[in-house]
Amino acid sequence: MNWKLQALGALCITIGLAGSSAIAADSDGDGVDNWIEESVLNALAPEWYPQFSRRLQPIDWMVRHGYAKVYRRSDGAQVGRVPASNVALTPDQFLAQMAAASVLWPHAAYEYRWAYFNRDQGRDTNDPNDPFDWNIAVAQGRGVYGRVTPSPDTPGLLQVQYFVHFGWNETDTPPGCNAGNHEGDWISVDFDVDATDVNRPRIVRAWYHNHGRQVFVESADAIAFSGTHPRVYLEHGTQETWPFAASGGFQPGQVPPCVTTNRRIDFGQCTLEYESACNGGYTSVREHEGLFGGYLIAPKNIGEIAHPANNEESHFIHQYPGRYGSAWEGGCWWLPFDLVDSESPFGPTFGSNRTKMWDRSFDVTLQWPSCNNQSTVWASPVGGSSPDGSQANPMRTLGGSLGVVAPTGVINLGPGTYADGPLTIRQPVTITATNGIATIAP
Prior knowledge:
Elements: E1 13-14, H1 34-43, E2 47-50, H2 59-64, E3 66-72, E4 78-82, H3 91-101, E5 110-116, H4 119-124, H5 134-140, E6 144-150, E7 158-169, E8 182-194, E9 202-210, E10 213-217, E11 225-226, E12 229-234, E13 241-242, E14 259-261, E15 266-267, E16 270-271, E17 295-296, E18 300-301, H6 312-319, H7 351-358, E19 374-379, H8 398-402, E20 405-413, E21 423-424, E22 429-433, E23 436-440
């Protein structure tokens, strides 16, 4: 069947992954060639939309401006610090001093917590003698860290992750309560990617880590893009990641179709996802409207745990075992709800962050409507702004339709050109085009 004569335009459909490069090099030992990792990381690098001007914080900047406090686990007493005095170090210099200190303070019995020489400058990444902000991050390609490895969930797909560190997390809490504030903040977005065409990788599904839960994007048609770059909207104060711009969280009318979550933040009759629903004018989910533009920053590959990338920031992320802060606030005694994840975090490869970010060990039970596993999905290249696969709101792409159709389901393609590029179809599905029906099955 000649697809070009039907509704699919210049679409090329293939079964299986594209061949690898003739000369392979795989520095991190995960089975994905270096050139594929770099190509995919850069092609899908997010465009970040911070709500206001809090600066991201590169690891080398953080290390120059701080030290690690050492606490005894048995009684919580502080027993030392690394380095011993306020000396600006490189990440590798710090790791060397930490390795020497671990003879006295092994991590099994002691905990490391980061602190800044100048607390206010450190928390805000605001040293006038060592300036850094979003524009510098763009110009210098600093502050965003990435990883590409085979997907643990779907054979043939790649897992592509991006991580950003901040010096402070500022929650929105009632007067007289600082619950949830903490030094250090790691944010992450996570994509499953079809790299059948390495030059045109395609996001299949996504996870945005958000307030200790996950926001699931079930079809790439639910993501806003700038070219090939997915937009990531960051909450005011907390930097939590979102795939869409809004003033609140999971509330009717706020969430686009095909975006769901494994947890809503509710208490009793007060829905904390959205400010106007709560008395007192505070909310757990803050505005993330992207009002001030986006920033596209070249990511730095950090490799895998067994084989870190050969750069100092990667070494630090993989080897520093402590928390990225030493000051945080728990719940206030009079609050009628508990806050989660309020302590300073570990890095992406340690503690709870390794579990939920690096290893994807999170709850997949959904607490918001899903658009997955539809028996019939409609698609049109001129689909509306809120595609959900219905005839009234068709998906915009064949790839987006494949993300939500049920096995053995039907995709009805309206006329026009679908600019998907090569696609790998991984389940039996019937595709109906203008002039006929084609059944494609593995």
